[in-house]
Amino acid sequence: MTINKPSADTSHLYDGKTVRSAAPSRKKAAGQVGSGSEIPQDAIPKVEIPSFIESLLGGPLVPKMKFLPPDKMVQNLQIAVYGVLVALAFLTYLISPPDGTMWYILSGSLGFANIMQLVIIGGATVCGFMGTFKRDARFSLGSNVLFILAILRFASSKTSLSNDAFGFQDSPFLLAVLVVVYSVLLIMYFELSNGVIRYSMLDTSIRTNEVYVMNPKKIVSKYHRSLIINPVIATLLAWFVLSANTILPRIVGIFSSDTSLRMEESVELTSVYGVALGTLFVFITVGVLFGLNLPTHLQRYREKQAE
Amino acid sequence: MWSRKSAMLGSLAVAMYMLGLTLRNSQLVTIAVVIFVFLTWAALVGNHADVSASGRRAEEWTGEEGVALGSVVAMRKLSSARMFEDGELNVTLRMQNTSSLPKILEVRDRVPEVMRIKEGANYILMELGPRRETFIEYTVECPLRGFYSLGPVTVRIQDAFGLFHKEKELHVYNDFLVFPKMEDLKETFVKSRVPKIFTGAVNIRQPGPGSEFYSLREYFEGDSFRAINWSAYARSGKLMVNERERDAVSDIIIIVDSRAVAETGPVSRNALVYSTRAAASLAKYFLGRRDSVGVIVYGDEVVSVDRDTGKKQLYVILTKLAGAVARGNIPLQVVVNRILPHINKGSPIIFLSNLEDDPTIVNALRDFRARDFDVTVLSPSSLEFEFDAKRLDRTGYEVMKTERDVLIGELRGLGVNIMDWEPDMLLSTALAGARGF
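YS: structure for the whole thing
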C-alpha cells in the first residue's frame, strides 16, 4: 500500500499537543554534519574528467596511475620519437634563421637572436627527450610549444635557411620540399610523443585489467600502418595543395592561353598569396565534399561493395 | 566528432595560416597547409562523425545513426536479476557485426558507479570481423542495495591518431535488484503479549493449534479424541483426525526511517544502510518463526507492506527495502497517525531510525506506548558514522552525543526498549541490548 505524500503543512497533527523540539545546538550541528536532503559528498562517484590541456594531449598531464614499465610497442614508439626529434631539431634550426625572429626584432642583435633560437630549439629537444623517456606529458607539451615558438618568424615571404651547406637555397623546389618535410615531421612528432603517453596508458590499463583488448596485434598494426601511410599521403596532398598556384594557370589555359600566361607571370600568384589562393580553392572543394556528407556516402558504398 | 586534439591542431593551423598571410611568410602557410591536409585525411579515413553520445534512452533518441556503427548490435545476459548485497553478477555481452567489413571498436558497457568490476573488463578494445560476433564476460560486485540498470553500451570508432571519432549508444538495458544483506539471528527477545489466536489471526498454512481446518491424517496414540473425524472414520474404516491450521504467533511491525537525514554519513555506512539490513534480517527471522510481518518505510512518502507471512512476503519486503531512497522529511507522528488504526493491539513494533531532525519522535513513540505497544528502537548513530569519517570534530561530537543520550534517556523513560546502535555492533547484540539482556 502506498500512501501519497501528505501536504507540507502538518501543523494539524500537533493541535493540542506539546511538540518537543530538538535543541538549537543540535539542529545547528546537524546542519554542519550534512544532514538534510543534500547528497553526501562520498555518495557522489569520483569522475575523472580530463582538463582542457589534458584532453589536448589525449591523456592526463600528471597521470593518476603510475605507468608500468614500457612494453615493446611503447619502446618502439620512444625510439621513433627520438629519431624524429633529432631530425626535427636539425630542420627547425635549418629553416628558421635568426633574422626575422621575435628575438631579433626585440634586441636587434643577430648574435643574440641566434643564441636564443639555439636555446629554444635545444630546450625543445631536451624537453622532448625527457618527456618521451620519462613518459611525462608536461615535458612533451613544453617541447611542442617551444618548437612552435622556434618556427614563428615575422619576416619575408621567401623561405630562407640559416645554414645552406647542401645548397638548397638555390632551388625553390628543394626549399619547398624541405619545408613540407619539416611540417610533416613536426606533426608526426606531435603525434608520436602523444602516442607514447596514450599507449603507455593503454598498456598499463590492459595489464591492470581495466581494459581488455581483443586481438591487440591487429589494433597495433593499424596504428603502425597509419604512422607510415598518413604522413606519406599528407606530404603528397600538401604538395598538390601548395602547387595549386601552378596548377591553376594550366586549368585556366584550357580555356584561355593568354590568361594562363598572364597568371603564370603574375607576381601575386607566385607569392604567398598565390599559395593561399590555391589552398583556398582546394579547401573550398574539400569543404563542399564534406558538406555533401561524402565520408558517409563513401562508407555506405564500402559497406555495399562488401555485401 | 572532433576531438580536442584535432581542434587544437586545427586552431594551430588556422592561426599559422592567418599569421603567414599577414606576414607574407610562406613557411607558416606551408606548415598550416600540411596540418590541414593531415586533419582532412584523418577525417576522411576516420569517416567523420555523424552521431554523438547523448546518454539518453532509446525512446528519446532522435539522432541520425552512423553508417559504420549501424551494423553493430549488442545483447546482454545477466546471471541473475536479484541478489543480495556483496553478491556477484556475471554479465555476458554479445557484440555482433552484421556488416561485411571488419571494424575496430571501443566498447564500454556502462555499469552503475557504486559497482566494482571484480573479474574481466567492461571496457574492451576489439577487432570484430565481418559478420562475426564475440562474447565479453565480466563480473561485477554489488556492494549496496537498490534498483540498478546496466547499460547503455557505448561503441566508438576512431581513427588511429584519435583525431576524429564517432560514437553510438546501443540502448540495451538490463535491470536488476540488490537486496539488503541479512544477518542470521538466533533470538530477538521480541514476543507479542497478546495471543494472536484472537483478533486478526492469520492462517499460515501449517498444521498446529488453530481454528481453521487444515487436513486429515491417521490417528496416532496420544491424539485427542475430540479431534477424531467420525465421518472420515465411517468412510475409510480407519481412525482419522482433523488437523487445524496454525495461526501466526504475532504481528510484527517494522518501521524504517528513510528520510533524507537517514543517509548522513559515508555512502556505505549510514543509518539507512544499517536500518534496511536490520529490517531485512528481522523480517527473515520473524517470518521464519511463522509470525506475520509488516514493514513501513517513510521518507517523502509512506510506503507500507501489509502484514503477511511466508517466503513470498520476505521477497516483497526485501524489494521494498531495496528501493528505499533517502528522501523527504515526513515526521514520525504522521506515520504513527496513519498506521495506528490498522495495527493489532499489543503487536511488537520495531523502529529503525537515527532519531535525527524530527521533533515529533518523542510524542509519536509516546502514542504507541500509551496504547501498550511493545516498542523497540534500534538507532544507528549518524554521529558515529560522521565522526569515523572525520567530518565532525571532537567537541561537536561530544555535544551532539550528549544531546542524543538525553533523547534516548527520555525515550527509555517512556518504556521504549531502545539501543544506541554503534557501527561495529552486530544486530543481535544491539537487539539484546535494547531488550535489556
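YS: worth flagging: The beta strands of chain A are 2-3, 212-213.
IM: good catch. Also Residues 1-8, 16-40 of chain A have pLDDT under 50 and may be disordered.
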